[in-house]
Amino acid sequence: MADNRPIGVFDSGIGGLTVLREIWNLMPDEGTVYFGDNGRAPYGTKSKSTVIRYSLQNMKFLEEQNVKMIVIACNTASAHAYHSLTRNSSVPVIEVVTPGAIAAAGTTRNGRIGIIATKGSVNSGVYKEAVERYAPAGTKIFQQACPLFVSLAEEGWWDNDITAAVCREYLTPLKEEGIDTLVMGCTHYPLLSDAIARFMGPDVKLINTGVAVADVVRDTLNSLDIASSGGGEVLRAFYTSDEPKLFEDVASPFLGRGLPAGTKHFSTDRYEV
Amino acid sequence: MADNRPIGVFDSGIGGLTVLREIWNLMPDEGTVYFGDNGRAPYGTKSKSTVIRYSLQNMKFLEEQNVKMIVIACNTASAHAYHSLTRNSSVPVIEVVTPGAIAAAGTTRNGRIGIIATKGSVNSGVYKEAVERYAPAGTKIFQQACPLFVSLAEEGWWDNDITAAVCREYLTPLKEEGIDTLVMGCTHYPLLSDAIARFMGPDVKLINTGVAVADVVRDTLNSLDIASSGGGEVLRAFYTSDEPKLFEDVASPFLGRGLPAGTKHFSTDRYEV
C-alpha cells in the first residue's frame, strides 16, 4: 500500500544534504523533511552519550512531522546512536554506515580497505566492524580520523593547495598500506572528493555513501510497501536549529543545487529524552 | 570587604582556558568555576540569537554556583551576548572584546590595526567598533575571519607547514595593509601565536586578550572591593556540557598545565531563558 508521508532526514548540520541529494535523485516522488542541527554542530568531535541524546531529540522532532521513515544522514550519529534510535522509533530507521561498508566490501579487489571519518566515528569502531562483517575473511581495514576535512568543506576550500597538504598529512598512511578502496565515512567529505582522489591516485576507488544509502532507502520503502504513489505535490521541507539564513547560505554546494525557500527554525533541545 | 566566592568563567569549550590561565597567574588566591559548553561548541560559526540563548543558559548555571563575577571567556559570546548578559545578571559581567581593543589602541604606532576572529565576531562588527572607540581618530582597522584556526588549534597543529599555509592564506591581506598591531580576537588563537608571529614578522605586535582580560578582572574586583581575602583553600572547579574525559584530554595545552582532576558534566540546555 502506498504511503505518501514524507521521509525524515537529519544530520548535525549541512553534511547530510549530500545524502538528501541522492535520495531526491533516485526517488523524485518521495517527500522529505530535513532537520539540520546546526545550533549544536558538529557531532564528530562530541561524545557518544551527547550524540545519542541529540539524535533522540532530532528523531522526536521528525516523528512529530509525521514521517514514514527516518534516515540518519550523519555517520557519527549512525555510529553512536543507531541502536538507541531503532529501540525508540515508531518508524523504520536507516543509517549510513552499513550501506557504505557493504559497498566497500563489494568494491575491493586486493582486500585492503581504508575508512576516513570523524574522530567519533573512528573511535567508536562501528565502521570497522561493519566492513569486517561484509568483507571476505582476511580483508585488512585501515582507519584514519580527518577532523580538518569538515572545516575545509565548510570553508569552501574543496581543492586548493592547503586541502592538498591536509590530504597528504592524513592520507599518506592509508596510501602506504596499499588500499584500493576508500570509504568517505563522513557526509562532508564528498565535497573534497576531487582532492582526495587526486592524492590517492586512479587505482583507489572512493565510496560516496550517499549513493549507497539512497539505494537502501528505496529498497526498504519497496520491501515494506510504503513507497509514495507519486502524482501529488512533493514536500521538501527544511528545518535548522540555528538561523535559517546561515543554513541557506552554506547549503547549496552540499545539496548540489539551490535550496527551496522557506527553511524554518526549530531547536530540538527542548525535548526531554 | 573581601568576597571569597569564586569567579565564574565560561566559554564555548576549551578556548577560554587561555583566559583562565591568565586569571590564575595574576590572582592565585581567587577561586574559579569554569564552564565549557563543549556539547554545543563551537560558537564562532553560529548565529547571534543562538549564541545569546546559550550564553544566558551558561550564565544561569554559573550564578547557581554562587559566583561573585562572570567572565565571558569567549570572543564570539562577548560580541553577541554581552548586553543581554549584563541586563540579566545579578553579578558584574566581564567580556573579552573591550580589553583587547584597549590594548590594541594603546599599542599601535602607525595607526593600522588588524583583528582576526571567528566569522561571528567579525560579522558582528563589535570588535571593530570597540577598537574605534579607544583608538586615536584616523586609525585604520582591518578585520579577517579565520575559521580554520580553531580546528588547527584543536588538532594540535600549532606550528606546522599546513598552519603556515593557512596563515599565509588568511593573513596576507592584513600584512599588505601594513598593520603594526594584530588582535588575536578568539581564545583559540594564542596556541597558534608562533606561526602567526612568524608570518607577520617582528614589526607586528600580537595582542593576547587573555592577559588584558585578567587585568580588567583584577581592577574590577579591587574597585568593587570584592577581591578574595586569600588564605583559604582556592576552588578550581570545571564543568563541561560534553563528557569530562573529552574535555580533560584536550584542555592542558590551552591551560598551559595539567588540569585538576574531577571535571563534572552539566548540560545548560535544560534552562529556560
Describe the model.
The structure is a homodimer of 273-residue chains. With 273 residues, chain A is an alpha/beta fold. Chain A has two domains: 7-95 and 211-270, Rossmann fold (3-Layer(aba) Sandwich); 97-209, Rossmann fold (3-Layer(aba) Sandwich). In chain A, 47% of the residues lie in helices and 16% in strands. Chain A has helices at 17-26, 48-64, 75-88, 97-107, 119-124, 126-134, 147-155, 161-176, 193-200, 209-223, 244-255, and strands at residues 7-11, 32-36, 69-72, 93-94, 112-117, 140-145, 181-184, 205-208, 236-240, 264-265. In chain A, strands 4-3-1-2-9-10 form a six-stranded parallel sheet. The model of chain A has no long low-confidence stretch (mean pLDDT 96). Chain A binds chain B through residues 38-41, 45-50, 147-148, 150-152, 154-155, 157, 161-162, 165-166, 169, 241-243, 245-246, 269, and chain B through 38-41, 45-47, 49-50, 147-148, 150-152, 154-155, 157, 161-162, 165-166, 169, 241-243, 245-246, 269.
